[in-house]
Amino acid sequence: MYNILIGCYGHETNTSTPDITELFRFGGEENIIDPDGTRLYNRGFYDVLKKRDDVRIIPSVAAWACPYGKVDAKADEYISSKLLEAIKNAGKLDGILLSLHGAMVTTASEDGEGDLLEKVRNAIGNDIPIGVMVDLHANITEKMIKNASWIINYDTYPHIDAFERAAECAEIMLDTLDGRINPVMAHVKLPLLPEFIPTTKGAGLQLANAMFEIEKMPSVISASISYGFFCADIYESGAAVIVIADNDRALAEKNAAMLAEKMWDLRHELKRNFTSIDEALDCIEAEPDLYPVILADCCDNPGGGATGDATHILHRLTARNVKHAVVAFIYDPETVAAAEKTGIGNVGEFCIGSKIFPEITGAPLKTKAYVKAISDGHFDTGREAAVIMGDGNLNTSKNWPPVSSQHGKVAALDLDGVIVLVASTQAQTWNDYAIRSCGIMPENQTVIAVKSTVHFRHCFEKYAAKIYEIWSPGLSEQLVSKANLTRTRRPIYPLDEM
Ligand SMILES: [Zn+2]
Predict the structure, then answer these.
(1) In the chain, how many domains are there?
(2) Cα–Cα distances in angstroms (integers) from residue 248 to residues 37, 181, 184, 219, in the given order
(3) In this model, does residue 387 exceed pLDDT 50?
């Protein structure tokens, strides 16, 4: 019988967001325990392990918070202690599987996952394997490498393969315990801060293909590319590649070096180009037959640690009197409450958005507006979506990205042709369901502004006539050159010409 403990604990920390990520953002004390091992990404481990009747699954924690500012050290201490307590109470252990983000910074430490893995390693000694899955945007640190037996990350951005990668991580554990393989890991850390490049096209796709070619080689178990998360301004921030081979260190090292070289050669293409709001609106006016056009408000993406209440795009849409425009979404629970009080079908005075850091996200928009709809944010997709929603930040089903809304109660306010959807929960625009839930057909709008960097593409790309990626001031900075990084080691590209 194999005794395998599984746990999930993740946060992508944006160190430029001044607020602290407290325990309640992880769901609070009562929600961080996973009673049966099926919550969040534990599910990917669980489904593989469950198939074997010689495995005892030992659940522990399932704690995940939407990206935001540094994690409160007390919250980290609490969640870590629950994981360590589960390890201590497990009795004899044969392996540990952890799903982490890999870019967590706490108020006490800039290497959240490195510290966590060190504590876990110290608790169990060197003989028990620790298999780790991290996000594609992990900042891989020396401490993580030293204390994990193997690390694999998501291969895709949009991150549509987290459950498959968790399953892969669990398969590696079973193959190891059965004695079929002996995983050895090589990694190369690059002096490189990539911007948020999707893996579906261009340099991102080329790199993904190179990685898959390596994975096809005999004796290679897994290859991973971590793009890093430069908004977590830490010494070891940035890109890394990892190759895991079966009992063959030279093979792992050779291929890790090859993949790193490929990434380095493509470094000039791991940058993004942005459009200003008015440039995009000029193009939309010039091409009225192209609709809907998506404006991705990349720098105000709650999925990257931003507030999600920036009003820059909203101001320009109303000032330019654009018709059939939808802003999805502005996080502002006060305005949702005010809309409820005003009532559907009535006109009221509102002060919309930019309540948290208005010096960055623009002034709130003070305006009269017609309350068109108030919705629970959910759109009934019937038999399409058998989805169990989790803690409001991440779905707990195997379906990913989330196929349901995560915006909480939503108010649709009509500002004479510009409809702003005001949300009561901070979440990025994963999909269009909450738009539809307000009686709006997204396909027929002139413009839809979304709060997301890349993940929105999974839903909106199907019918978008055009997509503009917008740069405007916000807390999820997209350009390394504007990020004001002080902790990141130097020299590093593109901050330094290399
Ligand atoms: Zn990511």
Answers:
(1) 2
(2) 33, 10, 7, 8
(3) no
